[in-house]
Amino acid sequence: MLEIENLVAGYGGVAVLRDVSVNLSAGEIVGLLGANNAGKTTLINALSGIVVPMSGRILFEGRDVTRLTPRERVELGIVQVPEGRLVFPEMSVRENLQLGGINARAKPNRSRQMESVLDLFPRLKERLAQHAGTLSGGEQQMLAIGRGLMAEAKLLMLDEPSLGLSPLFVKFIFDIVDRLHAEGLTILLVEQNLMLTLRHAQRCYVLERGQVAIEGASDVIKDDPRTRSAYLGL
Amino acid sequence: MSELLQAMAQGVLIGSTYGLLALGMGLLYGVSGVVNFSHGDFISLGMFLCLALYSALSLDPYVSVFITVPVMMALGTLVFRFLIRPMIGHQFLMIVQLTLGLSLVLQNGIMMVFGGQPARTPSVVESKLMILGEVVLRVPHVIAFVASFAMAIGLFIMLRSTDFGRSIRAVHQNAHAAALMGIDVGRVQVLTFALGIGILAIAAALLLPGTPIQPTQGLRYTVITLLVVVLGGMTNFVGIMLGGLVIGISEAFGTIYLSDTLGSLMPYVIFVLIMLFRPQGLTLGSSR
Question: Is residue B264 classed exposed, middle or buried when 0-12, 13-18 and 19+ CB atoms within 10 A define those classes?
Answer without folding.
Answer: middle
